[in-house]
C-alpha cells in the first residue's frame, strides 16, 4: 500500500487509537481500534478520508451527551442514529 505522506510502499492497514472532538465542542473522546494506515518508512499513522467521514458523520448523528470518554470504533459505529444521514454535508 502506498503512503499518502511519503509515497513509500511500506504502508499497511492497522488499527490505532485516535482522539476526536465532539461536533458541539464540549469534549474530546478516545476512539480505540480505529481503522488506520501506518507507514514503517516515515512512521506516520493516519486515517483515510473515508474513515474520517464515517466518524464525523456518526458523531454528528448520535446523542453524544451519553457517550463515554473512551469507545472502540465498532462501538461508536453501532450506536443508534437520531437522523438517517448528515443533512448538512453538502459535499455528497
Question: Can you describe what's shown?
Answer:
Pfam families: YokU (PF14122). InterPro entries: CHP03829_YokU, Znf_MqsA-type. It comes from Priestia megaterium (strain ATCC 12872 / QMB1551). The structure is a single chain. 10% of the residues are buried. The longest helix has 13 residues, at 49-61. Strands 1, 2, 3 and 4 form a 4-stranded mixed beta sheet that branches. The mean pLDDT is 92. Helices cover 21% and strands 30% of the residues. It has 92 residues and is of the alpha+beta class. The protein is built from 2 helices and 4 strands. It has a domain at 15-34 and 49-78.
Task: List its salient traits.
92 residues, 4 strands, four-stranded mixed sheet, alpha+beta
Q: What string, H for helix and E for strand, traces the elements in order?
A: EEEHEH
The end-to-end distance, rounded to whole angstroms, is 26 Å
Give the helix tally: 2
Query: Approximately how much beta-strand content do the residues carry?
Result: 25-35%
Overall pLDDT, averaged?
92
Shape: elongated
Rg is: 15 Å
User: In percent, how helical is the residue content?
Assistant: 10-25%
Quaternary organisation of the protein chains: single chain
The overall strand count is 4
Low-confidence stretches: none
How would you sum up the major sheet?
Answer: 4 strands, mixed
**Helices and strands: which structural class?**
alpha+beta
